[in-house]
Amino acid sequence: MNAISASNLCKVYQNGRKALTNLSIEVQEGEIFSLLGPNGAGKSTLINILTTFLQPTSGKILIMGKDLYAEQKSIRSLISCVAQNVSIDNHLSLRENMLFQGRLYKLDKPTANKRMDALITAFDLREYEKNKVTAYSGGIKRRLDIAMSMMSYPKILFLDEPTVGMDIESRQAMWDVVKKIKSDFGTTILLTTHYLEEADMLSDTVCIMQDGHELVQDTPQNLRQHTGQKVIRIDLDSSENCQDIVKLISDLQFVKGIRQEQNTLYANTQNPMQDFRILNQMLMDKQTRYFSIGVLTPSLDDVFLSLTQNKGGR
Ligand SMILES: Nc1ncnc2c1ncn2[C@@H]1O[C@H](COP(=O)(O)OP(=O)(O)OP(=O)(O)O)[C@@H](O)[C@H]1O
Q: What sequence ranges are listed for the domain ABC transporter (predicted)?
C-alpha cells in the first residue's frame, strides 16, 4: 500500500497565485521521500495540504489508503509534522517536554514513559537530559522537537527542511536520526529540502519540483541516469598539457565534445565505458603526463540543473 497517494493536485491561493498545478506523488510505506525544489516551488504548500492545514483547489489524496477529506480526523492520528520553527517549551526539561507531548496524544503514563525512553536512546539525547533546554544548540533543539513528534508513533512523519541553517556536524547527526526513524520505527518520512546532497544521502525517492509541478520522481540512482550521459574525466599536470590533449583527442570520431576546467578535461563520448580504455591507451602510448582517467556518473546537482534549466518553462 502507498502511504501517500496524491493525484492531480492544484492549489490556487485567494490572490490568484497558482502554487500547485496537477501535481501527483506516490509515497510508499516505510520509505524516505524528499521534495526537492527551489524557493516557491510549492513544497510547503504541498506539505500543508497533506497534513490537512490547507485545502487543495482540486485533486485527490489518499493517506494510508484513506481519503484525506472523508476521514480527516482518523488520518490526523496517523501523521505528525515538524515545522521549521522549533516548538519546544523552554520552561520544561527534555523529559517534561516529551511527556507533555505524550499527554497531548492522550498516552497513558507507562506507554508515554516507554516511548520516551526508546526515543531518547534512538535520538542520542540521553546526555542532554540534565541540561537546561535553553542551553541546547539549534541542532539538539531540532532533534528534541522531532523526538516529541514521534511520541505518537506516527505512520507518516512530515519534516519541513529538517536541517536548514545547521552546520555540517549537526546536519549529519540529523541525517542519522532520520535514517533511524525509518529503520527502528518503520515510519514513512516525507521531507522537504533545498539541499541536493541531503536528498541524495537520505532518500529512497526524490521528487524534483518547480513552479508547482513535478519535473521528475525517481530513486537518486535512476535520477542520475536522467542526464543520460556519463563523461570521461582526465586529470593532467598542467593546462598546457591539457591543450595538447584537447588537440589530440578532439579529432577522434567517438569524441562528441570536450570541456576543460583548469587541469581537468571532460570528454563526452558515445560509449564512455569502452572509450575511456582507448583514451587511456592513447595517453600512455603518447607518454602523456596525467594523474588519472575515469568515467564519471553525473551528480544529482547535474540532474537538478539540467531539469530545472531545460524544462523550467513547461
Ligand atoms: N498564503 C499564500 N498566499 C498566496 N500565495 C502564496 C501563499 N503561500 C505561498 N504562496 C505562493 O505559492 C508559491 C509556492 O510557495 P511555497 O511556499 O509552497 O513554496 P516552497 O517550495 O515551499 O518555497 P520555500 O522553499 O521558499 O519555502 C509561491 O509563489 C508563493 O509565493
A: 4-236
pLDDT digits (tens, 9 = 90+) for 243-288: 888 888 888 888 877 888 888 888 878 788 889 899 999 989 988 8
Contact 33, 78 (CB under 8 A): no
C-alpha distance from residue 222 to each of 214, 225, 305, 311 (Å): 16, 5, 16, 18
Determine the Cα angle at 125 with ends 122 and 130, to 5°.
150
**Residue of the CA atom closest to atom 10 of ligand 1:** 19
Residue 6 is placed in which grid cell? 496524491
Task: Give ligand 1 pocket residues (Cβ under 6 A).
Answer: 13, 15, 17, 19, 37, 39-45
Q: What is the ipTM of this complex?
A: 0.97
Per-residue DSSP letter, 207:
E
The strand order across the sheet containing 213-218 reads 79-82, 156-160, 188-193, 32-36, 205-210, 213-218
Query: Quick one: angle between helices 168-185 and 138-149, nearest 10?
Result: 20
Residue with the three cell numbers 532518500: 203
> In this structure, what C-alpha cell is assigned to residue 207?
521528487
Q: What is the pTM of this model?
A: 0.79
pLDDT digits (tens, 9 = 90+) for 139-197: 999 999 999 999 999 999 999 999 988 888 889 999 999 999 999 999 999 999 988 88
Among positive and negative, which fits the CA dihedral 310, 39, 163, 48?
negative
Beta bridge partners of 205: 33
